[in-house]
Write a structure and sequence with these properties.
Mean pLDDT: 93
Helix content: 55-70%
Number of strands: 6
Number of helices: 11
Order of helices and strands: EHHHHHHEHHEEHEEHH
Strand order of the largest sheet: 1-6
Low-confidence stretches: none
Distance between the termini: 36 Å
């Protein structure tokens, strides 16, 4: 028996009205729902900063006090790529050109993760079952982190507010080396069966993982040794992990958002329609901050 939740979509006036108003807004203002020149400029800026700092770090011998700020800058650019380029591309909203979306979606693989699993984990599971404990992989961090009341409590959670930031900062390393490979070999994303992988999916998974090891581990160690590499590697990944975790957590795991719980291998019916559930489980933040609006690509709304 599969674990699933069924929304009450029979009376869905809210979603119908919301969709109508959104469509009307874009139509009235003659705005495309996909990216325009502003997103393309941001893409060039973020990719240029990321690639430029990587080349500088690899090609120019420098003291650690120059290296560390560059690694932080490179990490901030990488997180921005994930927020504004990868996210929109894998949602199919970066461009009307689906092939361009697929190519830019692989920027996630460039950063070490896997776009194929992310599309399932994020686009389908997370956006359908946001904050549903038992299905939503984004809040499945127990027992390290307890993110809702239905999750098992352990004494360490009394002080989780003290160790959350260090855990968040290491999240990308867990993602690259543990979570992706667990999904690959188990063929599951938390409690949901993953899609069947095509030969192309298998090839992309292993080629990009090997590329990541070569570009982020083998090449830097061969140029600068283990010590310098370890410092730069950790600083870079801690920056990416911290930025991405904070932005995504602020959107869903805060005081005013709601949670649902569903036990394993059961079906649960809830009163809310899907669109209403989305509103109840999502929060806005920093709405008037122009930099966050630009950097996060609107994910703070």
């Amino acid at each position: 028996m599969a674990t699933k939740i069924i929304f009450n979509n029979k009376n869905n006036d809210f979603f119908v009205a919301l969709k109508h108003n959104v469509d009307q807004y874009f139509s009235t203002n003659n705005i495309e729902k996909t990216g325009d020149y502003r997103l393309y400029i941001k893409t060039v800026v973020l990719l240029s900063v990321f690639i430029g700092t990587y080349i500088a770090l690899m090609a120019v011998p420098m003291a650690w006090y120059f290296m560390v700020p560059l690694c932080i800058l490179m990490g901030a650019a990488a997180a921005g790529i994930g927020l504004a380029i990868m996210h929109d591309a894998n949602h199919g909203s970066y461009s009307k050109n689906s092939k361009l979306n697929d190519v830019l979606g692989l920027s996630m693989n460039m950063l070490g993760a896997n776009a194929y699993f992310w599309k399932q984990k994020h686009n389908i599971i997370h956006h359908t079952y946001t904050n549903v404990d038992g299905i939503d992989d984004d809040i499945a961090k127990s027992p390290i982190i307890r993110q809702c009341e239905s999750q098992k409590w352990v004494p360490a959670h009394k002080v989780q507010h003290l160790y959350l930031l260090p855990v968040y900062s290491l999240s990308i390393l867990f993602w690259v080396f543990i979570m992706d490979t667990t999904k690959y070999f188990s063929r599951k994303i938390y409690t949901t069966e993953a899609w069947k992988m095509s030969p192309k999916n298998h090839l992309v998974f292993w080629v990009t993982k090997i590329w990541y090891v070569g570009m982020y581990i083998v090449l830097p160690i061969s140029l600068f040794g283990v010590g310098y590499w370890a410092v730069g590697y950790l600083v870079y990944h801690m920056t990416v992990g911290l930025v991405l975790s904070l932005i995504f957590q602020l959107a869903h795991v805060v005081e005013n958002t709601e949670f649902e719980h569903i036990p394993l291998d059961t079906t649960k019916h809830i009163d809310s329609a899907w669109a209403e559930h989305q509103v109840k489980t999502t929060a806005n933040f920093a709405m008037k901050n122009k930099f966050i609006n630009w950097y996060a690509g609107g994910l703070n709304f």
